[in-house]
Amino acid sequence: MATIGPTQVNASARIRSAAPLLALAALAACCALSRARAERLAPTALETGFDIPAFPAEVVRPFSFGLRSFVSDLMFLQAIQVHGGRGTKMVTAHEGARDDRAMNRLLTYATDLDPQFAGAYRFAGNAMPRQTLDGKLTNVLQAEALLAKGARECPDDWHIPFTLGFIESYFLARFEAAGRNFAAAARLPGAPKYVGLLATRTLTQGGDLAFAEQLATAMAEQATEESSQREWEERLLDLRMERQLREIEGAAARYAARTGQQAPSVAALVKAGELSDVPREPHGGRYLLEGGEARSTAKERLRIRGRRGALATLEVQ
Amino acid sequence: MNDVLRVPWLIAGNTVRELVRSKLLHNLLLFAVLLIASSMFVAQLTVGQWDRVILDIGLAAIEVSGVLVAILIGVGLVAGEIERRTVFPILARPVTRGAFLLGRFLGLCAMLAVSVVLMLGVLAGVLRLAGYGVSSSVAIAALLILLELSLMAAAALLFGSFTKPILASAFSLSVFLIGHLLTDLKAFQQRSHSGLAKVFTGVAYRLLPDLELLNVKSLASNELPVPHGLAPAAALYGAAYAAALLVIAVSIFSRRDLK
Questions:
Q1: Is it the case that residue A310 has pLDDT exceeding 60?
Q2: Residue A28 has what pLDDT?
Q3: Nearest to B240 by CA among B221, B216, B213
């Protein structure tokens, strides 16, 4: 009968102790190989996307169970991911509709859950409006609605009415409403000086000259720095010039209606009795009348372009 | 010291010593601390307002882990002891059931206070690393969370005094969830056309704890001041409600036939 020597016992013990490791290595290799093969054979996954449902705030709010602010942050972070996922590539309105809807709903949830989430409103104003390949502007009205809510809920944050004013003037050409929002932003603490000046310019474009003058007067009175005070006094002169230019244009329109011809000059309007006298240009220049339109030789009129340029033909959806 | 005060005090001390060794408490605290620390990385996903994200995650972690501690450990301190029959040697001594419950409650509240302070410290550290400070609103929010946790601890002791641990945990968790829905319950009552629903929701609204009164986390994360007088009123409400739950718990536990 053969006996087992100490060498054989040692070898057997070594194999036994190495067996689990060998088995583990074999199984790991098997997993890696079979996984690679399964991945090759698996059908291409259909693109699936969870369309975020439009639950009303009354439903969303209770289900955060006291963690409203935290859940609001999660919605906001998700909206940032959606925005980042878009990249810089332009797509059509139809192709980007899901992202637009997701952004709007996520930010609506975020601000419904925490109405004082200023960052979400600011992000909505900057990230939501989108220009598409097929000549449309999407999510503009939705961003406007969110910002209007933000202006109500966060009355101390100047960025929100400012962004709202920008959207109204740049995308929607609603200059009077935009001017009022810029004016509201200008009165808030921390707002830069240019916001007030922009407000008066936009209000002038929108037609509400009286409100623009009221704002400029108030800002000039409140200005603590001499340079700011000078700027506002200068703006008051611009507004006075605008008022006089409008009087001249009104008189020119009446003249044209009465005579069937354009008035050749401002002096002709005075001569014809449409103006009592030639108004004194506040900057020291002169008023000219060209084709029924008045202008000053000293300074350009307060105007704003908005969507009159390249964006003018785009359809707002 | 008078026996009426000494016995609960001793039991509270023992409870603290037990809880210091509790693995469940250690794990929950570790989970919360990791969550708070991770808020620093999550904040980097946002656009501005890092402090808001850190505060929201931090305060939510303090609240959620605290509620889990209050419920899971609170239930174990009475119902668990009854189930394991370890309560009998204690009650065999000259210790009233009321003193036992009060001691357990005080010990648990002390541990909850230590946990909240610890987690608030970690949160303050994370905020500091990100370049922000801790406002008074954050401190008030943490204090009100502690009161909410005390209330939940009292609820866990109440349910644990008459039912099994699993049911007591479920009931306590329900109180937490419903407690944050009471404002909506009131709105439902006002809009409901059913008389029965109005009565039922009206009674529930009056009886259940309104935990939203103790919730100023949104104000803290938005850097808004807590309205003057809200914090003391809410704190008084929370403390009184917890005391009421404890009185009911003592009353039930004193009459319970322990077999």
A1: no
A2: 87
A3: B213
A67:B63 CB<8 A: yes
A136-165: pLDDT as tens digits: 888 899 999 999 999 999 999 999 999 999
Here the tokens at position A276 are 């009592």
- Higher per-residue pLDDT: B146 or A130: B146
**Residue-level length of chain B:** 259
From the CB of residue A206, how many other CB atoms can be counted at a distance below 10 Å? Answer: 21
Q: Which two tokens stand for residue A208?
A: 């509400």
> Nearest Cβ partner of B218 from A69, A119, A122?
A69
User: Quick one: pLDDT at residue A222?
Assistant: 79
Tokens representing residue A189 in the block = 């603490």
Does the model's pTM come out above 0.80? no
| Measured distance CA(A76)–CA(A78) in Å, rounded | 5
Chain A with chain B: Cβ pairs closer than 8 A: 68
Distance from CA of A167 to the nearest CA of B (A): 20
Residue range A268-293: mean pLDDT, rounded: 86
Domain limits, CATH 1.25.40, in chain A: 52-157
| Contact: B60, A123; criterion CB under 8 Å | no
Q: Which helix (H) or strand (E) holds A287?
A: strand A287-290
Cβ contact (<8 Å) for A67 and B218? no
Q: Is the pLDDT of residue A48 over 60?
A: no
Name the burial class of residue B205, with classes exposed (0-12), middle (13-18) and buried (19+) by CB atoms within 10 angstroms of its CB.
middle
* Alpha carbon B197 to chain centroid, angstroms: 29
- Put simply, the answer to whether B181 touches A68 (Cβ < 8 Å) is no
Using CA coordinates, name the residue in chain B closest to A66: B180
CB A144 within 8 A of CB A172: yes
Which runs of consecutive H residues, i.e. helices, occur in B44-135? 50-68, 74-75, 81-84, 87-91, 97-129
- Is ipTM beyond 0.85? no
Four-way CATH pick for A52-157: 1.10.150, 3.30.450, 1.25.40, 1.10.3470: 1.25.40
Beta-sheet strands, E only, within chain A:
130-131, 136-138, 287-290, 293-296, 315-316
Nearest CB neighbour to A62, from listed B46, B181, B222: B181
Neighbours of A47 (CB within 10 A): 5
Residue in B52, B180, B187 nearest the CB of A73: B52
Burial of B31 (0-12, 13-18, 19+ CB in 10 A): middle
Ramachandran angles phi, psi of B74, nearest 5°: -60, -45
Other beta carbons within 10 Å of A257: 8
Task: Report chain B's mean pLDDT, rounded to a whole number.
Answer: 89
